């Protein structure tokens, strides 16, 4: 039955989305039409000398413009496997807008995650974005990514995902606590907090402490990063893209590229409409963060030093806020470019509008500008008008093929993500087993309709449920 369903799916997919051979041949025409309909779009198609496909890169002009003008300079890069006939890998470069939404920048397609493919993808990305000041990359600890960034973006800062780093620690040391403490140290805004958590980790597990130190605190710690990571500590924005394309990753390559273009077209339209309807000067996400911090201001004591400098006290601690320089000794203000609760307390003392303290990244007008350029469709291939030299370009199937066996539908789940719950086979409730069950038996619709009441063992002396003959109170009486 499974084989029939599998073969039926393999038969239906080419009818709906085209064959792999056809779509590879149409890649050059698709790239031409895509750039005609969306001027400024960057594409790159690489083939071997014999015409076999090697790489394909796509970055829409709307994404390039929005990132360069209105986005925090932090890019998460990741790779994920393709599930089509010829396999391969999809490379993703993603950012996050001021409303904490996933913002795709570029996509690439190659044979696997190796040094050559990552270097090619990053070179295409540099060609699309140009030079970005204070640029930060976030990725997992893949050696090819680190080598490619250091070669192609020598001026950028490469950091690692705290979640992946924590998962590696759990596997290595078989303790969840070491990863939790590391994550707290990584997200610390001050060196005092960082040192406190690191000392806690050293006392708990010296080997884990040495492991994170050898990895380089500047790679995973916010406070030691040479550039600002803002509120981005993981590559979750890139993982979300992989999840959105779970079905599309089994489609032919050109169909997958068109699926991505159509998805971004809808995202840009819906987000532009939603941004225009926002009621605050900040984005909804930024406004929510500020409101939570404003609630803490009621319990703080503010003393003015001069017109711009304030001393803020709360729960026996003290911070110094400088409104002119937009700094606070807690370091949260200058690292996120969002005012902390201490800054908001000082701003309220001067009746200052807190939105003026926020960076433009988090403002509603900026979000509208990010999605102001729509992404245009390319139409059906039968309507394309392409120059003869482009249409005649030969693009053959790649040399790589998918491995035999059933393809993996989802990613491998780590041991720390697996949860096991014990369930009673008598009542079906979790948390206990049948020998300690005091609940009524469950009723099943099937051959075994009702579990009898005397399912549990009885005492062989007094025939009472709940104990055995070893603990029976009538044991001595029966012996006599």
UniProtKB/TrEMBL annotation:
One of its GO terms (molecular function) is zinc ion binding. InterPro entries: MULE_transposase_dom, Znf_CCHC, Znf_CCHC_sf, Znf_PMZ, Znf_SWIM. The keyword Zinc applies. It holds the Pfam family SWIM. Gene3D superfamilies: Zinc finger, CCHC-type (4.10.60.10). Residues 424-439 form the CCHC-type domain. Residues 401-450 are annotated as: Disordered. Residues 319-351 form the SWIM-type domain. Keywords: Metal-binding, Zinc, Zinc-finger. It comes from the Eukaryota. This is SWIM-type domain-containing protein.
